Amino acid sequence: MAASEGRIKALMDFLVNVMGFKVSFVAKQPYLLGLSLEKRIVPRGLFVKNLISKGLLAKVSGLTTLFASSEKDSNNEAFSSYHNAM
C-alpha cells in the first residue's frame, strides 16, 4: 500500500505538531503509514495527551506501544484503569 503525500503530511503534522514527537523519531516508524489516522492514531494520541495533561501519565516513550497494539490489547485493564480515572 503506497501512502499518498497528503496522508504522510497529515500523519507527520499530527505526530509532530500535536503530539510533540521529533520528525526524526517519527520517520523511523514506517509501520505508522499502514495505520488509520482517523480510527487509530488520532483517538489514541489524544487520549494519551489527555492523560499526560491530567498528570496520570508522565510521557510516551515509544510509538509502537501506543499505536501498534491491537484493539483488544488497547482495551485491556491498563487502559481501563486510565479511563476510570478520567
Automatic annotation (TrEMBL):
Q: Supply the source organism for this entry.
A: Gossypium darwinii
Where would you find the membrane-spanning parts of this chain?
none
What PANTHER family would the database entry show? CGI-12 PROTEIN-RELATED (PTHR13068), TRANSCRIPTION TERMINATION FACTOR MTERF15, MITOCHONDRIAL-LIKE (PTHR13068:SF166)
What family classification does the UniProt entry report for this protein? Belongs to the mTERF family.
Q: Organism classification, top ranks?
A: Eukaryota, Viridiplantae, Streptophyta, Embryophyta, Tracheophyta
Keywords noted in UniProt: Transcription, Transcription regulation, Transcription termination, Transit peptide
Annotated GO MF terms = nucleic acid binding
Biological process annotations from GO: DNA-templated transcription termination
Q: Which InterPro entries match?
A: MTERF, MTERF_sf
The record's section on Pfam families has: mTERF
This protein's name = Uncharacterized protein
